[in-house]
Prior knowledge:
406 residues, alpha+beta, Transcription Regulator spoIIAA, Pdz3 Domain, 2-enoyl-CoA Hydratase, Chain A, domain 1, 3 domains, six-stranded mixed β-sheet, five-stranded antiparallel β-sheet, 25% helix, globular, disordered N terminus
Amino acid sequence: MRNIMRKSFIFLNAFIILFGIIIHNNVFAYSPTDLYDNVWRLINTKFVDQTNNSQDWSKWRHKYDKRIQTNEDAYVAINTMIASLNDPYTKFLDPKEFADETNSIKGSLKGIGIQIGVKDGKLMVIAPIEDTPAEKAGLIADDEILEIDSESTKGITVDKAADKIRGKEGTQVTLLIKRKDTEPKYYTITRAEIEIKSISQKMPIEVSLPDGIAYIRLSSFISRNAAKEFSDILNRTKDKKGYIIDLRSNPGGLLTNAIYISDMFLDGGTIVSTVDREGYKETQRATRGALTKKPVVVLINKGSASASEIFSGAMKDNNRAVIVGEQSFGKGLVQEINRLPYEAGINITIQKYLTPNGTDINKKGITPNIVVELTEENVKNKDDVQMKKAIEILQKTINGQAVAAN
């Protein structure tokens, strides 16, 4: 698809680090000091702000030469140096963080398929992933995990718990589960390769969907399978009259996914442009021949960021969809990830992006055509007023009625 594949690993993620990834392999023997110097040189040549936050970048190059003895020393020095850039998206990744990111891109992991978290000091199941060993074993949201393979989870961190639950495909893990108003029960579950699905068609339980409308919830653009999942759903719902695409609290992911999915709805036109440190502008355009020309409403909120804003901006500026909800997060920066020695990596902000109309949305966000706020009272009463408005707007559009922006 055009020149998109030239940058096949581009990320857009708001809250952590990601927008772009081009992985460079370094195979030479490196000392911890070399690792630090490698990072210095990469930032010196790639960081989008050529002034490096208005400082003399050369002062950092040999600042810690006599103090760096181990990889851990290098990690501390690198993080100190990067902090001077005052850019939350340029970030060093230690080996574990880099491995986690790689697994996110692949869209799979070895485990049982549960999302976990710590609440009030207790390790809890947030939700089982659909069609996984955890779901099939009967685990449900709000289950408390008391033990993992006979070891207490008291005081355990989420990362350590995840490491214990994950493992080689075909092996087993035993969890002691406490469910509300029941006695603790052991679950022995066989690990498998878990496909991380980005897309669901499950509606919020408090809203019923009228016939003729397809609902697509896209939780992230991270998995490289997301675009295929999305096209599969479009092909399965050809009989529908219109689409609601829910991007609320979607933090971003692969740029290629945002471009591919935008291209499914656009018949030509600009999708997004990027501008590098030299001022060079590169524009990605949609191909002719959309997969569907049926009406679309896109739901966004303040948690919709990066790739979500690329897609929303493309749909809005091309007058292809009505955007409903709240102002989006506002992340218009591009990161590139470089693979470093010792299985580490670094994300470096290398570009900014513009919507088709040339708008820089960084720290501003996408403004919906129809602004609908979801209040604490709405959440408490399970009243999804944003979804209700999206349904109302889409039905009017399907029926050929005019929709007035506010």
